[in-house]
Batch of 2 targets.
Target 1
Amino acid sequence: MPDSRLPDLMGTLHDAASLDDLYEALIPMDMTPGWIDRKKPLLWFEPHTAFKPAHWRYDECRQALDAAGRLIDTNLAERRNLVLANPAEGNDFATTKTLVNAYQMILPGETARSHRHAPHALRVIIESEGAYSVVNGEKHPMETGDIVLTPGWCWHSHGHDGDKPAYWLDGLDVPLTHMLEPMFFEEHPNEYEEITRVTPDSPYRFTWETIQRRVEAADADPEGCFGRRVRLEADEMPTIGIFVERLEAGQTTRRYRHSANVVFSPMMGSGTSVIGGTEINWSRGDTFVGPTWNWIEHRAEEDTILFTMTDEFLMRFSNYYRMEKAD
Ligand SMILES: [Fe+2]
């Protein structure tokens, strides 16, 4: 059946008397001229971001988690975590544009039921004796200094066999999943997975001993932007690059900026970083972020091992990645 509106619409478009009339006529067609000025233009000369260099102190977050442990039990908050929401305007949970971090605490005897989701996840264990994560049926110990991976769509649950609260830093790519919209989430039909074995070793667990050994054996960065640095293998979660970096007491890194977002968390040591002109004095367990294209430099006061997670490899895959180094 012919569309009776068509002659009128065609006429209105063809005979639009002014640009304003044309813009008006385009609205019901769900079109917008590419040439008009916009609050946010389509192109700009170099990266800028609403996300800010930001810092969360572990000692403060730990206090808040202890209060949460007193005030809310795991019936109400099965995963007792505090999300590090960047103070970017309009942001309500993301830590950087593509990544989100949270501090999480589990009390002795508590468990979190198994679930799985599209976003990839990792945990940097800050204080723990006896906590564990069951990933695809295998029990992974989570001891102080370990890094444990949960690639997307792996079943995972948590538990705690020890006798003191355990604390860790979660890192996920949920903001990226929200942007691209491939979110899936499922709760385990049996609530908990059957544990098939306790892993003596696993590609999903990097022990503190392994991390220290590997970083001590790493080569210095010839450009001086990083300390001795190792990339931890996480092929199943290509959106999150993971590095550990060794900075000697007194070492200063060369200033650089790049088109990637980075989250830092010192696993050992203390120091100061200047990110986008903001000075951040950090200690073990803290979290701080370098949003895209902010100048970054670190000064270690003590011997330091710095954990970093980044969307750099996502940017490289997309051929978007650029880096500049200060002279
Ligand atoms: Fe999860």
Note: The chain has three domains: 1-43, 55-207, 211-325.
Target 2
Amino acid sequence: MKNISRRGFIEKGTVATVGIGSLPSFSNAMNEQKKTVKVGVIGTGGRGTSHISNLLTIEGVEIVALCDLTQSKAENGADLCQSAGRNRPTIYCKDENTWKELLEKEKLDCVIIATYWDSHAAIAIGAMTKGIYPGIEVPAALTVQDIWQLVETSEKTGIPCMMLENWSFRQDNLAALNMKRLGMFGEIVHCHCAHSHDCIDHWFFDNKTGEKKWPAEYLLNYNRDQYPTHSVGPIISWMDINRGDIFTEIFSTATASKGINAYMKRKFGNDHPNANLKYKQGDIVTSVLKTKMGKTLVINYDMQLPRPYSNRWLLQGTLGVYDEEKASTYLEDKSPEYNQWEPWKPYEAKYNHKWWSADFSAQSHGGTDYVMLSQFIDAVKAKGPTPIDVYDSAVMSAIVELSGISIQKNAPVPFPDFTKGKWKTNKPYFGID
Ligand SMILES: NC(=O)c1ccc[n+]([C@@H]2O[C@H](COP(=O)([O-])OP(=O)(O)OC[C@H]3O[C@@H](n4cnc5c(N)ncnc54)[C@H](O)[C@@H]3O)[C@@H](O)[C@H]2O)c1
């Protein structure tokens, strides 16, 4: 976010997001823009390393410190920095609490947190209390109690807290958001999304040995939507959640757990120790969320059956529908044939969001990670609000625990209002700058 003024305007080839949002309370528009920011990365595994690579391509970023449980992973991150012609960052690597020493000793402007899920909230709270912006990998926290602590710490310290939900920044999703804000879909009534991503053979388990990796423990011990934020990220802006509307309840249900055992037996044989374990996690979780204004959202967790990747985003209103999986849209009074799909791509180009003013496709995840991180870094430089705030981070993350409670009770569960009533007056914000 280059400047803090908000305007709806049309630039060459890009459409700025429509609508005027009020500044979130964290905004500090009077601060001088910083030219360089000092960044620390805690957790330099797969995702942390990818963040380091992207950060090295963003102007004005100085990676000064890295922390991991494994020395070689942190050293690898430091090698990347040196190979890019930068100073070698200081390495912090003793135990799972060494991040505290890093936050204490380094004068950071922001910290990227890409550790295991159970440490995200504590590190982010530690950062905010030291005046450091946290950019937290998904989910921001695992329990509603920890989420409230994130919200309260952010409010108390005035430090914005952003969950790094990259799919909110996808080019197609942002174009759909522009169209929604122009009223092209009419009043929004219903959305659907999924995280259909077979991760059993690489992220949850080692595909050579079948050994459990750290996320697999969650499949053994919980039955819930383990990973809702990628699918819900773009939807909360499409549905104006926390800004004019709010989720009121969630009702989740899960299938039996068949996929993990079937995969283990198929790949490693019936006698593999992980082939006969009893996994609590059902293969498909379906959650229905209701909003105060009468909208509904259906989310599917789907990460342990063999299938191609899909997010199946769908946005439906009184004037039309966008279907990501079909790469199609239908707009009443606009589409050439009555009730017939037309291709999405021309709309994506026409209503391109200005964050996608260049081709970033050489970067990770087709450029989406770069767009997200550069917006986060711009916010840190400006000491202004982050593009995803603590309330949106809270709503996305809360689905993890709440879906599990709902499955266990076989009943709807109330959804907390993390804004404490501010949703009634908050104006649309994401993507408007
Ligand atoms: N947004 C995306 O597209 C995306 C993709 C993959 C992973 N992720 C998220 O990124 C996070 C990390 O996942 P990953 O796949 O990189 O896992 P990983 O196992 O590859 O890396 C995690 C790293 O964190 C380190 N770590 C754990 N606890 C620590 C602590 N207390 N202090 C210092 N280091 C610690 C581990 O040693 C490990 O190297 C997770 O939250 C995951 O959900 C997001």
Note: Residues 42-48, 67-70, 73, 96, 99, 114-117, 119, 137-138, 166, 214 surround nicotinamide-adenine-dinucleotide (CB under 6 Å).
